[in-house]
Amino acid sequence: xxxxxxxxxxxxxxxxxxxxxxxxxxxxxxxxLARKPxxxxxxxxxxxxxxxxxxVTDPVCLASxxxxxxxxxxxxxxxxxxxxxxxxxxxxxxxxxxxxNEAGVEHIIYLGxxxxxxxxxxxxxxxxxxxxxxxxxxxxxxxxxxRAGVIVGPGSISFEMIRYLTECFPVLPGxxxxxxxxxxxxxxxxxxxxxxxxxxPEARGGIYELGGPEVMLYSDTMLHYARLxxxxxxxxxxxxxxxxxxxxxxxxxxxxxxSIAAPLIGGLQSDSIVQDDSARRLFPEIELIPYGKAVTxxxxxxxxxxxxxxxxxxxxxxxxxxxxxxxxxxxxxEVEAAPVSVYRVLxxxxxxxxxxxxxxxxLLRGWLDKILGGAGTHKRNPSSTQTDYPxxxxxxxxxxxxxxxxxxxxxxxxxxxxxxxxxWMEWRVEKRPGGGSTLSQTAxxxxxxxxxxxxxxxxxxxxxxVFHGLILALKRQSEVQP
Length: 482
Known about the structure:
Layout (H helix, E strand, L loop, with lengths): L4 E4 L5 H12 L3 E6 L14 E5 L5 H7 L5 E4 L10 H19 L3 E7 L10 H13 L5 E7 L2 E2 L4 H12 L2 E4 L6 E2 L2 E2 H10 L10 E4 L5 E2 H12 L4 E4 L5 H11 L4 H9 L11 H5 L8 H10 L17 E6 L2 E10 L3 H9 L11 H13 L24 E2 L2 E7 L3 E6 L5 E11 L5 E11 L1 H31 L3
Parallel strand pairs: 1-2, 1-4, 2-3, 4-5, 5-6, 6-11, 7-10, 8-13
Antiparallel strand pairs: 9-12, 14-15, 15-20, 16-17, 17-18, 18-19, 19-20
Helix pairs in contact: 1-6, 3-4, 5-7, 7-11, 8-9, 12-14
């Protein structure tokens, strides 16, 4: 008998991208619904998933997506749609429930928002999350609804707002809702509950409020984060700041666009705490993670090897973005040379050979580092005549340390320069089906405090000039290799 087939909606979102690998580990078959499945092709879990193109507002698409499905995860929100998103969310949930009925889906698992549905000042975003659950339950499928507030994990909208705002500002004026109560929950625990819902048939049909072991003021989530990062921060309330202004501010400083920040901030205007502890009683095997530990675990993932590489499936040849604690500068070119030739050029950079573009700037940066008390440029000198890829993990290359290398495929360098943050340079080489290679180059910088933000922002034009010239030089040099 084949393992059960589970449908996951919102598969490009934060929660789904972490839920799907856990489901695959359990041995179930996963079908993912996505508007643009090609954007997900580079995810590590993509090869084990069946994709269906479309969205939850299309009955024809849903009929195909539900075929053979017993359980479906509803992980959809429409906040990015701007005005009218609450109507869109209700209509989408109604269509989903109706088509699930026709397909005979037995179980829907829904992740909504944590708020008191009877609160007088309940924000439209939170009310929409609750009404979505009500609409899903109008069908015949059993609906297990989880409600979560501030989710702590790299990539979570709530956590990224806390991370970037706290990193950037020593003194942060905020609205009065900074004094509202929240009960942050680890992203890992949220996934634990979503998976456990498959194994607890007695919990079907219930509504379960999710929160960590601590009730905190929202301002305390930022101050606690600051302490764990070694920052001193001061927050004070400034009532009356309009939500659109705060949203624009968040859009400018964080990865969260204003269209999503506005309803999310509106949802913080009331307390978001657990009032019913039935989740802890019905899922006793789940050990709740304290806020400090959840933040520490998230900070431990501040490494290119851990990041969710959402930009790789967008088809863009270059972009700059903020993502999971990083500033990212990404570029990609097509090279008319085999991966072995491209990697040979990568392995020859630095040392006596220098860097292939604006080498004097690389030398100047090493000299300035020496002046500022850093180690400056190291003396390792790889030779362009070597073809056996002598680069090894832990070796030093000028002011970089080799952190990861896969011959003909990957080179990751960690910067040992004195800087207000941590930096990496990465190159990936992929063989093209029709011949030649695709070379991608990514610069990662994880800022530490306001100096880190200023450092990257002020140097961004220079970085863009150097990185653009470097990848083109790598392309040219690879294509003239014998």
